[in-house]
Each structure stands twice: as C-alpha cells, then as structure tokens.
Specification:
The protein is of the alpha/beta class and about 250 residues long. It has a single domain, classed as Rossmann fold. About 45% of the residues lie in helices and about 15% in strands. The protein has ten helices and seven strands. It has a seven-stranded parallel β-sheet with strand order 3-2-4-1-5-6-7, with helices on both faces. α2 links the parallel β2 and β3. α1 packs across α9. The protein is globular, with a radius of gyration of 18 Å. The termini are far apart. The relative contact order is 0.18. Bound molecules: adenosine-5'-diphosphate and magnesium ion. The site of magnesium ion (MG) has 5 residues, from α1.
C-alpha cells in the first residue's frame, strides 16, 4: 500500500512518516519503504543514521540499488534525497518504480514537500491514499482545507487526518476539526519535547521510547493501518524494559 503524507511545512510530515515506518517494521513485522519525496529540502535522512544514502534518482538509474537502502531497523528501508536537487521526477518512470516496489513492501510511505508543489501532487496521484497532517492552529487548518479541495479535484483518496503537536489549550479544538472536516481523525499526537531530543540523537522515538505520549499515538496509528494489535507491552518496554537493560549492562 502506498501512502503519501501531506500538509503545511512544519506540521510534522517528515517526523511522522519515519517514526510510523519504524513502528510498522519493528512492532508489526511489516516490510516498509520510506521515501523522502522532498527533493529540494530533504530532511528525512537526518532523522536516522544511514550507512549509505540511496535516492530516488539512484533507484531510477538501477532499481537494484534498493539493497543499499537498508537501515539499522529490520524491515525498514529508507530512500533519501540528494541535497538541493533540481532534477525533475518523471511521472511515468516514478509510477513504474513505485508499482514495482509495491510488490515487495507492505507499506511505501512517502514524505512530501510542504504544501502543494507539483512533486506533492505527483506523489498524491501515485499513492493509494494520502494522509493529511495538521497542527491545531489556524494556518495549518487553512492549508488542510486547501488539501481537501485539491484532493477532491484530483480524485485522490484521503484516508484521514493526523492532528500533530496537539495541546489541550490549542486554539483549534479537536471538536472543531471533527465538525469541519468530513474525514476521520486517525491519530492525535501530542506536542512532546522528546520528539526533538530523539531527532538530535537520530533515533526514531517510536522505537527508542514507544511509551512517550507521541510514541503511543504512533503505535495506535500503526495498529490501525495493519488492522492488527501491537503485542509489545508499551509500559514494559518503556520503564521496566529500560530497567532490565540497565541490569544487563551492570552484569555483563
Ligand atoms: N509531536 C511533536 N511534538 C513536538 N515536536 C514535534 C512533533 N512533531 C514534530 N515536531 C517537531 O516539529 C518540527 C517540524 O517537524 P517536521 O517533521 O520537520 O515537519 P514537516 O516535515 O511537516 O515540515 C521538527 O523540529 C520536529 O522535531
Ligand atoms: Mg519535512
């Protein structure tokens, strides 16, 4: 299944795409390909330490380059973007590439550029679904309305909304979003300072600390997308798990 993540700059597309991919691979044993589709300002590869950077352009040159896109996380492959690339992605070439990889991955998750550049529209068109990410603040909501209009004009299927950086005192309430968008809210991810800490460490928080509020919300989203329950006990991994790994370190 190919899913593109769309929304205004800064809402959390890159963070969510990578962390969701890591959660699907780690806890639900899915084969996941995460693609940085933001070719002009690629950030995704900074969220994870990659041994080797493989870009969409490398795959177009030779699809076998996919073997180099491995990450430290089993089942997760990441396609980064060459920094500041101005090369255009050819629609037909990209289409056949994505169909080809769709055969060997359970999920292809695409992080798109901010707003609705031609690249974003291309990725939306080539995806089975798009997921709209917004923050509970007015400008991001306006951008989300625009996304709704564009998606309905293009006949793109919007699976639902992720409300990211949610705070109880946010100007835009969940109730407002429910009332004004005819789409399901798939996840509410709280504003969580740990997100940036893990960004600095280049580790997905959904794996390093799945019991943080943001981690839990992502786990639920991963469960929803596969229709399966996550079996790992979050509390155990978070607190008791850390305790055991400390003990292990002391005794080995
Ligand atoms: N739930 C969250 N809580 C706190 N900070 C977040 C959260 N989600 C994303 N961020 C931070 O917000 C900033 C923008 O996120 P990013 O994923 O780069 O957005 P986008 O790709 O949509 O431009 C980053 O600094 C990121 O660490
Ligand atoms: Mg981004």
């Amino acid at each position: 299944m190919i899913i593109s993540f769309i929304g205004k700059g800064g809402v959390g597309k890159t963070t969510i795409t990578l962390n969701l991919g890591a959660a699907l691979a780690t806890y639900l044993s899915q084969r996941v390909l995460v693609i940085d589709g933001n070719t002009r300002a690629p950030n995704l590869s900074f969220l994870l330490e990659l041994k080797e950077a493989v870009s969409l352009f490398d795959l177009i040159t030779d699809p076998k380059n996919i073997v180099k896109a491995n990450t430290e996380i089993d089942g997760l492959k990441v396609i980064s973007s060459p920094i500041g690339s101005n090369a255009e992605l050819d629609f037909e070439v990209l289409k056949s590439l994505l169909s080809f990889f769709n055969l060997s991955f359970n999920f292809i998750l695409i992080d798109t550029p901010p707003s609705f550049t031609s690249e974003t529209l291309t990725f939306m068109e080539l995806s089975d679904y798009s997921i709209l990410i917004l923050n509970p603040e007015p400008l991001s909501v306006i951008e989300a309305y625009r996304a709704l209009q564009i998606a309905s004009r293009m006949n793109v299927k919007l699976l639902g909304i992720i409300v990211n950086k949610f705070r109880q005192d946010a100007v835009v309430s969940l109730e407002y979003i429910r009332r004004n968008f005819s789409l399901p809210i798939l996840a509410v991810i709280p504003e969580d300072p740990m997100v940036q800490t893990y960004t600095l460490e280049q580790k997905p928080f959904s794996i390093s600390n799945p019991s943080t509020p943001a981690g839990r919300a992502l786990m639920e989203l991963a469960s929803y997308l596969t229709g399966r329950k996550i079996e790992v006990q979050l509390e155990k991994r978070g607190i008791i798990g850390t305790f055991f790994s400390l003990l292990k370190k002391l005794f080995t």
